[in-house]
Amino acid sequence: MFPFLDEKTWKLLYAEGKSFQKAIGILKSFLRRWGLMFRLKKADYVFVHREVAHIGPPIFEWVMAKVLRIKYIYDFDDATWLPNYSQTNARFNRLKAYWKVKYCIKWAHQVTAGNDYLANYAKKYNQNVEVIPTTIDLKNHHTEKTNQNRKPLIIGWTGSHTTMRYLDFIVPIMERLEKKFEFEFHVISNESPKYKLKSLRFIKWNKSSEIRDLARLHIGIMPLEEDIWSKGKCGFKALQYMALEIPTVASPVGVNSTIITDKESGFLCTTPEEWEKILAQLLENQSLREFTGKKGFKTIKERYSVEANWRKYLGLFKHSI
User: Fold this and answer.
1) Which structural domain range is residue 63 located in?
2) Which end of the chain is more exposed for a tag (fewer CB within 10 A), N or C?
3) DSSP string, 182-209
4) 31: which DSSP letter?
5) Tens-place pLDDT, residues 185-203
6) For residue 144, is it within any domain?
7) Are residues 240 and 296 in the same domain?
8) CB-neighbour burial class of residue 103 (10 A; exposed 0-12, middle 13-18, buried 19+)
9) CA distances from 77 to 37, 50, 170, 263, 304 (A)
């Protein structure tokens, strides 16, 4: 694996200011990418997730496809052609070059998309498209399980600060639940939320403790708005919760309705009344939490695990050699 940004630059990226350090880190990233180009000729295939470089035009993809004549597999799991950025780096938004996505797809030998909505977009530019859902590693990564006997009860959400706006909908519901139940509301993210809730606990996202922090949750939530950006989402939050046997409550938006069988492997809620009712039932009923969690895990194992999808990925590489 060859990530574009090193860990130091990645941590700087969403910090206020520090423009000079960010610029130096990104410049070094581009230099490493050019160095990598000279090594790619020896590769049997190249797998590109989302983009070769975080900013700028698709120069490296063009070099691979048109100059080096390398067949690359292009994989994406978000509507990356749509603008989506943090206010911290808003003034550099145009550098993202969202328009490049269609060319990355067009020049690819093979395209893999995380859901049908993304695949339909990709087929406008490339007919060699396959849908492969976001895959969960149950043997090496998502290896823990939630403990429904542990107290206090915890409702939780995980995600980046750019998607935290979806929690605006849930705040009034949490305020009402706080009056009836004792629980904590954990937000696991790279930035602290601004909400005024007595149950709120901010957990700084950390790669080394990510699964342990998630496994403390008794209920996982994934509220979304019905918009074109959400249609491109591949349900990673829901998949993570379910892999840890955490009962999941989500909006029936995009692929969520495919992942979750309502009232069996999770719950799909639209109105504030539905959200409040289901969350209250889960807070009250440990047996319901345990039953739903196990059904969710079964879904992951059978449809979204590495074991369930490895042949699809292997097939991609065989076709590209």
Assistant:
1) 7-135+310-320
2) N
3) --EEEEEESS------TTEEEEE--TTT
4) H
5) 999 998 899 999 999 999 9
6) no
7) yes
8) middle
9) 24, 8, 25, 26, 14
